[in-house]
Write a structure and sequence with these properties.
Radius of gyration of chain A: 20 Å
Distance between the termini of chain A: 22 Å
Helix content of chain A: 10-25%
Number of strands of chain A: 10
CATH class of the largest domain in chain A: Alpha Beta
CATH topology of the largest domain in chain A: Alpha-Beta Plaits
Strand content of chain A: 25-35%
CATH superfamily of the largest domain in chain A: Pseudouridine synthase I, catalytic domain, C-terminal subdomain
Number of helices of chain A: 5
Oligomer: homodimer
Shape of chain A: globular
């Protein structure tokens, strides 16, 4: 892959949009978004893409995952003045990326494309490990509940109340300042024995859009129901414009959360 | 848990045997067995147990796993002069152990018990991730084959030849010097879509005893068959006293291997 300065012939004045699906292990990152003095996924991706493009690159992402949160299907995009085939980006970026970030696929897209404004829905998984015998292979992947016992049937009942279009103002971080707090959750599934492991309970949340910490607060609230601190019907009082964050459960630890998938619209194809 | 020097009353001249099932993430260990200047699971366990017992402790293990190899069901035992209930060992050891080693269960056993001499069988899993899109969450758990394509059906055919009682001299490390090289493999399963992940192929090997690197050489040989470098029937020539290590596949990387379970006999109960 070309990595040096641009030379005549392999560049032009046109901008070429590149869209990537990326996966990362969030353990050693201070989240996705660039911050001075911190290791972030955005910075690693920008550095790698700039080495191939031959000029500085700005990465736009569908989701700003928090410190410790993992991704299997994050979507990012950037513009390059150097024309490189999609497969070339995928293979070439790996040479410049650390092994905790991997490109899953690459495609051409419209220059200036921002996947954040093209996201129609997202799917997240929150993983719980049950039982006192904690699996050390899962310590950075699942919230290990240890002596906390939960009843999955109660959690499932509570989860069903969350499905639908509601005001989720009680399920967002205090520093989230978005104006509209109405979101639609198409499904909140409670999967026992996830991945053939009887100790795993997965919460898979699929919705149109999410506020800051929303999935982690949902996970913390479902655990509060599962252990008997809240009743499944308490969910009804937590949905609506007057609901109070303090009535919901704690924010579950970041390392149990994985962004599985971003569903995109058709903006990427415009002028691509 | 008591951690200071022994005081009269909580000790006696008797030895109390303790047996533990332990799980560990092998990534940051130089294997199980103690070595000067290296971080090992044995040393971490001995340090933690000594802090609770109030005297130096020698840990005996069912299996010496290599550097990078994981365990979900390693079995170890030691003797303590301090009488502590089994549940106390389990909970107390966690306070003294790093979070990449976790005790799964504890029980009383005969003093002097050595699980290595009581092992009737072991089950190992070797994990392969298929496809160019490497999952960074699995980079320390699975051999990521990347552009190497394998045919699971051919691997399954080869695996069936390995089942049974054979001379596995071609499937051991050059520095293994055990006299008998005959072992029985009860099953060698090739599981596609392991853990509900279509990119995962698990090789689960269940046998009475294993030589050094045996499972990793089996995994490397099955991959050689899967990619067409060996034929399933070539397994027949690799089994038997005259077979040559050079005819088998490479030793697969350590980090794909997990010791799942050790099946024990009844020696632990004698004089317990």
């Amino acid at each position: 892959m070309p990595a040096g300065p641009l030379s005549p012939g392999d560049t032009d004045t046109e901008l070429h949009g590149v869209r990537l699906v990326v996966a990362y292990d969030g353990t050693d990152f201070c989240g996705f978004q660039k911050q001075a003095g911190q290791r972030t996924v955005q910075e690693d991706l920008e550095r790698a893409a700039a080495q191939m493009a031959g000029h500085p690159v700005q990465i736009k992402a569908a989701s700003r995952t928090d410190s410790g949160v993992h991704a299997l299907g994050q979507v990012v995009a950037f513009d390059s003045r150097r024309a490189i085939p999609a497969r070339g980006w995928m293979l070439g970026l790996h040479a410049h990326l650390p092994d905790d970030v991997r490109v899953q696929s690459a495609s051409a897209c419209a220059p200036g494309y921002n996947p954040r404004f093209d996201s129609l829905g997202k799917r997240y998984r929150y993983l719980l490990q049950l039982g006192e015998a904690k699996n050390p292979l899962l310590r950075h992947r699942a919230w290990q509940l240890g002596h906390i016992r939960v009843n999955p049937e109660r959690m499932r009942e509570a989860a069903q109340h969350l499905e639908g279009t509601h005001d989720f103002v009680a399920f967002r971080s205090a520093d989230d300042e978005r104006e509209s707090t109405v979101r639609t959750l198409w499904s909140v599934a409670v999967l026992e024995g996830f991945a053939d492991d009887p100790s795993l309970l997965a919460l898979v949340v699929h919705g149109n859009a999410f506020m800051k910490n929303m999935v982690r607060i949902i996970a913390g609230t479902l655990v509060a129901v599962g252990r008997g601190r809240l009743k499944p019907n308490d969910m009804l009082g937590l949905l609506g414009p007057g609901a109070d964050r303090a009535g919901a459960g704690d924010t579950a630890p970041a390392h149990g959360l994985t962004l599985l998938e971003v569903e995109l619209g058709r903006l990427a194809l415009q002028n691509a």
